Amino acid sequence: MISAVEFQGVSKRFGETVALGNISFSVNPGETIALLGPSGCGKTTVLRLIAGFERPDKGSILIDGMPMAGLKPYERNVGLLFQHYALFPHMTVEQNIGYGLRHRNHPPGQIPRRIAEMLELVRLVGFGQRRPHQLSGGQQQRVALARALATHPSLVLLDEPLSALDAKLRHELRTELKDVLAAVGSTAIVVTHDQEEAMSLGERIFVMNRGAIMQSGRPDDVYWRPDSRFVADFMGRTNWIHGSISAAGESYRKFRSESGWEFPVVTTGSLSGAAEICVRPESVEISSDARSAGAVLGRVADVVTLGAFRHVVLDLVSGDRIISACPNRPDIAFTRGQEVGVSIPPEACVLFAR
Ligand code: ATP
């Protein structure tokens, strides 16, 4: 299968800044990739290189198997939706959507039909004659998406497509964006610094840091099986417990925290000696029976309500402090000072060498 996009050892510097250091990856046709990472890690540079606004210092970029070296942006069949998606303010919605079609010499007779199709796709039928300032933020965002997709590009690049919207609209448009991309069948690369957005939009996530791809994989794999401390922390809230391996079996290790809390951890690695484990708050189980089997005694230090979840801060008798996330339901209540049993399922931890 020919990759829709392929980077082969691509490096890019801006003066002293290494924006990308020798990165390689490939994207399958029709796949949606989320590029996730902190500010300045090189996400936008990846998009700008694919679009042809920048040239790599080293390495090759291929689109549909064709090397892009020397091709101008307009010679690449790539749809773009850049940050803040500046629509042309003096043009109507229809003119905005048709812009790329006119510039790519699309047969003029077919342009109105294509615009109508795009309006339907982004659910803006009837809005064609409005100007951007007569639209809500979400509507403007959808016009920008329609403009990016109007030329039926085989590849679309979306840089923080939902960042200008408020949280509620962002959540709603995530699903719409996914539907639209699926309907068009384009390969898509979406840049975001929001891990939730990356997990909900990307079929695969590339987690970037300092010009490198730290890990790539399906959202659940990256979330539950991070292979570095950076990825574990970047993907979401994490408890870290320091200690060492106290016993080893074929598919498990016994982990002993510095404070003496011992529990088994499922692992296929060959780790021994000093170690730390990462465990997501939602994996930490609390039982109101403080002496339940296999649990360590803990005391509730604080309860933080976060809408759908509560974070229960726990001080364990061993001296460790960890956080458990549990659903915010009226029938489950924990109070400060309450004694509880705390346990961690052996398969919910990831072990790292220290
Ligand atoms: P953000 O999430 O803040 O948009 P990003 O991950 O998209 O960040 P890039 O825009 O790709 O990051 O930038 C990567 C690095 O390259 C940064 O350190 C940035 O300052 C630098 N950089 C990017 N473009 C230029 C430029 N034209 N001139 C100089 N430095 C640049």
UniProtKB/TrEMBL annotation:
<dbReference type="GO" id="GO:0005524">
    <property type="term" value="F:ATP binding"/>
</dbReference>
<keyword id="KW-0067">ATP-binding</keyword>
<dbReference type="InterPro" id="IPR017871">
    <property type="entry name" value="ABC_transporter-like_CS"/>
</dbReference>
<dbReference type="Pfam" id="PF08402">
    <property type="entry name" value="TOBE_2"/>
</dbReference>
<dbReference type="InterPro" id="IPR027417">
    <property type="entry name" value="P-loop_NTPase"/>
</dbReference>
<dbReference type="InterPro" id="IPR008995">
    <property type="entry name" value="Mo/tungstate-bd_C_term_dom"/>
</dbReference>
<protein>
    <submittedName>
        <fullName>Spermidine/putrescine transport system ATP-binding protein/putrescine transport system ATP-binding protein</fullName>
    </submittedName>
</protein>
<dbReference type="Pfam" id="PF00005">
    <property type="entry name" value="ABC_tran"/>
</dbReference>
<dbReference type="InterPro" id="IPR003439">
    <property type="entry name" value="ABC_transporter-like_ATP-bd"/>
</dbReference>
<comment type="similarity">
    <text>Belongs to the ABC transporter superfamily.</text>
</comment>
<feature type="domain" description="ABC transporter">
    <location>
        <begin position="5"/>
        <end position="235"/>
    </location>
</feature>
<keyword id="KW-0547">Nucleotide-binding</keyword>
<keyword id="KW-0813">Transport</keyword>
<dbReference type="InterPro" id="IPR050093">
    <property type="entry name" value="ABC_SmlMolc_Importer"/>
</dbReference>
<dbReference type="InterPro" id="IPR003593">
    <property type="entry name" value="AAA+_ATPase"/>
</dbReference>
<dbReference type="InterPro" id="IPR013611">
    <property type="entry name" value="Transp-assoc_OB_typ2"/>
</dbReference>
